[in-house]
Amino acid sequence: MRHNIMKFIGHLIILVLILLTTVMAGFSTLAFCQEEDLGRMADDLKYETARYFFENRLYDKCLFEMREYLEIYSNVVHRKEAYMTIADIHFKRYDYSKAAKTYIALYEEFSNSDEGLQAYLNASACYEKMGNEKKAREILKQIIIDHPDSRHASLAQTRLEVLEMTGKSGK
Fold it and tell me: CB 5: neighbour CB atoms within 10 A?
């Protein structure tokens, strides 16, 4: 009888330990999920703050927030949009050199995405606006070579043809 009680207590202790381990693992997983959620919320809040400034044409504040966003959050949801917004502000301000650099940074980080390819096309337009048709053509040709089956290659081909027709052949 005493042996059965001891055996029962031993099983009970093992069961309690298993339950405690399971509960603690659950709390650990919950804490990890909450930490990820908080990180995502902070990411969204920072990005949305910058977008608010953009939508209200407070471009200097938007640039500050977007640059800080890119610096703080390296592997995040809105990174492509942040680059594009920064470049678009520079483009609107006729600062084609800064716009081109930012578009190219977006392309280099996301070269196989639609946003990356669009940014590279936009960089070409910046070089064209700065009078550097040779560099604009190089970018357009690179898009055609690197991404021949994309809609961006088709757009690049059309822009090359327009450069030829307007006499801006980069010669």
Answer: 9
In whole angstroms, what is the distance from residue 66 CA to residue 53 CA?
10
- Residue linked to tokens 């995040």: 76
Cβ within 8 Å of residue 84, ≥6 positions away: 103, 106, 115, 118, 119
131: region left, alpha or beta (phi > 0 left; psi from -120 to 50 alpha): left
Q: Which residues of the chain are modeled with pLDDT < 50?
A: 29-33, 169-171
- Are 67 and 49 in contact by the 8 Å Cβ rule? The answer is no
* Residues 77-101: tens digit of each pLDDT: 899 999 999 999 999 999 999 999 9
Using only C-alpha atoms, the chain has a radius of gyration, in whole angstroms, of 27
Output 158-165 pairs: Cβ under 8 A, ≥24 positions apart. 159/121, 159/124, 163/128, 163/133, 163/136, 163/137
Q: What is the pTM of this model?
A: 0.74
